[in-house]
Sequence to fold (614 residues):
Amino acid sequence: MCGIVGYIGHRNAYPIIINGLKRLEYRGYDSAGLALFNHDLISKKTKGKVADLEQLFVTKAETEGHIGLGHTRWATHGEPNDINAHPHISNSGNLVIVHNGIIENYDAIKQTLIQRGYQFESDTDTEVLVNLIEDVMRNEKVGLGKAVQMALNEVVGAYAIVVFDKQNPDEMVMARLGSPLAIGIGEEEYFIASDATPFIEFTKNAMYLEDEQMAIIKRGAEPDIRNIKDDSKILPYIQELQLSLDQIEKGGYEHFMLKEIYEQPNVLRDTMRGRVLPEKNLIKLSGIDNYLNKFLNADRIIMIGAGTSWHAGLVGEYLFEELARIPVEVEYSSEFRYRNPIIKDNDIVMPVSQSGETADTLAAIKLAKEKNAFIYAICNVVGSSIPRESDSGTYTHAGPEIGVASTKAFTTQVMVMAMMALKLAKEKGTISMSEYNLYLSELAQIPEKIEKTLKTDLYIQQIAHFYKDATNALYLGRGFNFPVALEGALKLKEISYIHAEGYPAAEMKHGPIALIDENMPVFVIATKKGQYEKIVSNIQEIKSRKGKIIAIVTEGDTQVKNLADHVIEIPETLEAFTPLLATIPLQLLSYYIAVYRGCNVDQPRNLAKSVTVE
Ligand code: M6R
Fold:
């Protein structure tokens, strides 16, 4: 989980790399570094952000070069400090490398290299790798490409690396196993990055390295792509990127997170575009249509995911079971991958992921494939590893999500699951046609209802100000809104560092009720549909223990209004779709509480957007 940018070509590499690193800071931001070649190697790195790194490059000579690479780090081996920051340089001073991933057997390799006279400055696995490559070059008398290949065949772990040799500054070598790497292809120039955002203004033509592939690129020549294990040559598959520059800029909002919260009505329209067709009573999802029999005969869906994507899977469980009557299990990818899960012929394994690169989810998919499972991915990033590893799937079309806290990724994932469940309910006849039509027309109105919900923003700011100094918080919901409570708590803790827990409301009396006193804010999703009376009783229980109640209620509610300290109204919708609306005020509450506490909303401490390490 780190960001990598590289460039080789006729332009000045420095601004491309610095600006590219800023776009990749969501992948890690505890230290940063950049190396360029301009008559000699210039390499600088520092603890802190890319903005801190920029301060170190002062003179014209330091900021010019036609080949270079940069890195923004999320520490795995060695604390975040100047020395452990990337790039790392080999003992001879010739080879320079950036790396995203973990070399698991680095210590054994390091000991061997030390015996051969190599010295190490940092605690990183990456410094070991660059010296291993140098050692192979020296002993085997091979060029950089071959040495990288031979060295990688000795390491165990995960990597995306880019390396060049200052003695041959017209060539760059890169390789991938488990961590993403995209190559942008321009006119006699190449851009390399962890995703395509750093080079989107320069070229729309890109290729993605697959696992166990490496590429040797030279100015003015076709890329030479090889399988790392058997050296077989691979034809490049170049695709046209759909991403635009506006999509990855803040557009006047103070933070990406706020922009992304406000984008939800429009991105949900994108999620449904050409798929939800109420005038034709139709939901078109080619991923399902191509495998309809698999879905009609499915005995079980096993959802796998992490964090927010796992929460979306929980909402999916309610949707698929309620509408399509397909049993669903929802598993943390990190647990699933290390169990010996039972997967039967008629099971569908459904990974859910915004980034498409989460290491645990990828590993869980690989395990499921070994057991011959059919894999159907729900993913946002087109062309990322998870959809590529899957048999079929549906993209969420949320657009780039830069804020580390997932917002629009969650609602679009839930929307995809709602579309799938509804389509299957119709195909299987598990709901009547009139129910289907009602669901369909309600689904189409969700973006408008989110627009209305967003109008509570000013009032939410006041509530947020009131609770900004809380040290703990509880989130409660029932049925479809139980996962919303989990998601609300996750949002608060990850960006404001307030300890928060989500619970099914009825579980409160089995433990968490002991925590309630006049200092405890309790956020309750108490919408009219579903088990309303039961949740009103839960609210009474909180009130009698003097807890502070902030309730999300259906427009026009009076009963909860009389009990709660604050109520936030959302428009009425079908119970199955309430998560799409109830989530919005909870996102805004977390956002404003974090802003009032002075937290870095888009880049919270210790987190990274894309968790490509275990
Ligand atoms: O990219 P993914 O959806 O696979 O990521 C999963 C989690 O890492 C992610 O949802 C994380 O929990 C977010 N920070 C939550 O806001």
In short: Residues 433-454 form the longest helix (22 residues). The mean pLDDT is 94. DSSP finds 19 helices and 27 strands in the chain.
